């Protein structure tokens, strides 16, 4: 069985692809990526091919895929000292699609910075849209139940305690302060 790379056109047997350890590791990483991102990973890697016409080495592809996997797995996206935004898988997938469809003029790419910039812009747009919807609902008088807010923020919130409850907890947990009966001698 012959396999053809859709990005570079290389033709090899399935055994040849699977014999190279770096090639196997690359395919494993692509398979572990979220579906929306993994479908675009190989065409995205084509943007890193050298201008000399040589194919991208498996070692370089492995390095790039590991970096991409880390970027997609991070909790947030940040670009150029801008505030961090929540990481969105669709922001990465859409950013990859945009970069593939409209690559920068100075190819080959050397780092993921251009992709990071586009993904950040998309995540920022998503956050702004969420914030506009939240403000619109708030102005309309819709009170968010605690469960709705918890889902919106990732579900990591704990119930909020009142000041009185906090004071009770402090009184229970703090040992009572007793004035010493004598002064210590430090000399």
TrEMBL record:
Annotated spans, Disordered: 145-164
Which top-level group of life is the source organism from?
Bacteria
- Name of protein: DUF2752 domain-containing protein
Organism source for this protein?
A: Desulfosarcina widdelii
Its taxonomic path starts at:
Bacteria, Pseudomonadati, Thermodesulfobacteriota, Desulfobacteria, Desulfobacterales
């Amino acid at each position: 069985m012959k396999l053809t790379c859709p990005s570079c056109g290389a033709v090899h047997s399935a055994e040849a692809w699977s014999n190279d350890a770096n090639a196997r590791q690359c395919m494993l990483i692509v398979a572990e990526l979220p579906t929306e991102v993994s479908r675009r990973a190989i065409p995205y890697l084509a943007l890193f091919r050298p201008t000399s016409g040589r194919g991208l080495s498996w070692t370089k592809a492995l390095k790039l895929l590991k970096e991409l996997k880390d970027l997609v797995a991070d909790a947030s996206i940040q670009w150029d000292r801008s505030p961090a935004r929540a990481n969105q898988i669709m922001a990465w997938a859409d950013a990859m699609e945009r970069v593939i469809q409209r690559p920068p003029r100075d190819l080959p790419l050397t780092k993921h910075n251009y992709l990071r910039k586009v993904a950040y812009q998309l995540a920022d747009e998503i956050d702004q849209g969420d914030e506009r919807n939240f403000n619109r609902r708030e102005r309309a008088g819709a009170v968010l139940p605690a469960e709705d807010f918890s889902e919106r923020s990732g579900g990591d919130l704990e119930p909020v305690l009142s000041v009185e409850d906090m004071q009770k907890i402090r009184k229970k947990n703090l040992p009572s302060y007793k004035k010493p009966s004598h002064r210590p001698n430090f000399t």
